[in-house]
Amino acid sequence: MNALIHFASANIGNGDTPVVYGLDMDVFPGDLLYIVGKVGSGKTSIIRTITAENPLLAGEASVCGYSLEGIRRRDIPFLRRRLGIVFQDFQLLMDRSVEDNLYFVLRSTGWKDKEQMDQRICEVLASVGLETKAHKMPHQLSGGEQQRVAIARALLNKPQVILADEPTGNLDAETAEGILELLCSLNSSGTAVIMVTHNLSILENHPGRVFVCDGERCEERVWSL
To answer: What is the pLDDT of residue 169?
Structure first.
């Protein structure tokens, strides 16, 4: 089985400043992988390197078939279409409906057929339990519902990997658990999920592979609370 994401002896930067040295990481279809560590330890920088927002500073890296070593700017949008990204603060467009948030992403990633777009929007909203919320404005939704819209948005292009950066950070415990169960159900269907989190209790309830960022290193460890 080929790795969807591969890092070998990779130096990860925050901009041009190295924050993680010598990262070795392989992510395979169906993996649930956590990146944990203190604030400023390089967790989000790894995510930004995967999306080619931050340059690879040294070593080898590939994401969904694209080498990150000198990746061409014109290839980055195609790389990102293979990824679904879920942010802590939702990052929805507040001046348009749920449906129009999703149309915006489809149009910006090359979809043109209105019927196909309508069908895909219905599919992803149903998959997150929001099929009746398409015409709502974001401010009319709860925090948990807004995060479900963000997950639906991440699913639009049928990504091989979902990247979730503190996806429950702004949610109460009960709502957060619902979001985690949703992400884990997507993972159980074969989609790889990489989650950055500081909430270590998640690892007990939803076990997966764990990479710990500490002392300018990020290494896989057998995890126990």
So the answer is: 82
